[in-house]
């Protein structure tokens, strides 16, 4: 399985993510896409591969210093980054809005695959990578190849610090609820970091 998508939009998203995210956050974004795409293949889910890839690569850019908003939750800031990038790529307004929506929804309550495949896949992919949720559903050889290609690079502690910072500065955001719900312990217990 390839961990990238070869379209103009996908290459642009990878370029931007590579430019602004450190190795830990960039590799997390790629792994989130890969886990979601593998889950879709294993469960026969139809989805827009390019839309999902672009959203996955950009979903955490709101955590980076250049895009961290002092007023918006990081997922909303990241959604705006996706809107701007995809506007420059010539995407129509409704497709740009979908990219933003997928990024925002990855931090909301569970979205079912039947109602929104791409948002569901981003939730599955990020949850697997951040806290190990549903890891048992993935073939261990797939996971091993993915980690070899895109190592963790200290992702757990890096991500914990980023979301705790968001929670402290933006107490009404989804990250605050995530942190209050025991995120640090779940991230630290992720078997991907064992």
From TrEMBL:
Q: Report domain HD/PDEase positions.
A: 21-97
Pfam families on file:
HD
SUPFAM superfamilies xrefs: HD-domain/PDEase-like
- UniProt xrefs under InterPro entries: HD/PDEase_dom, HD_domain
| Protein name, entry field | Cyanamide hydratase
Question: What species is this protein from?
Answer: Streptomyces amritsarensis
């Amino acid at each position: 399985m390839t961990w990238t998508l070869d379209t103009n939009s996908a290459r642009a998203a990878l370029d931007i993510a590579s430019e602004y995210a450190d190795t830990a956050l960039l590799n997390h974004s790629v792994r989130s896409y890969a886990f979601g795409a593998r889950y879709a293949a294993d469960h026969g889910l139809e989805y827009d591969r390019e839309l999902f890839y672009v959203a996955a690569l950009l979903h955490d850019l709101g955590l980076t210093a250049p895009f961290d908003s002092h007023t918006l939750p990081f997922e909303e800031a990241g959604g705006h980054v996706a809107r701007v990038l995809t506007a420059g790529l010539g995407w129509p307004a409704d497709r740009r809005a979908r990219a933003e929506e997928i990024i925002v929804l990855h931090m909301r309550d569970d979205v079912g695959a039947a109602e929104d495949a791409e948002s569901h896949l981003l939730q599955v992919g990020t949850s697997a990578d951040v806290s190990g949720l549903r890891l048992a559903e993935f073939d261990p050889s797939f996971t091993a190849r993915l980690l070899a290609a895109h190592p963790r690079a200290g992702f757990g502690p890096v991500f914990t610090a980023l979301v705790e910072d968001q929670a402290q500065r933006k107490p009404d955001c989804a990250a605050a609820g995530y942190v209050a719900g025991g995120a640090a312990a779940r991230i630290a217990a992720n078997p991907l970091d064992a």
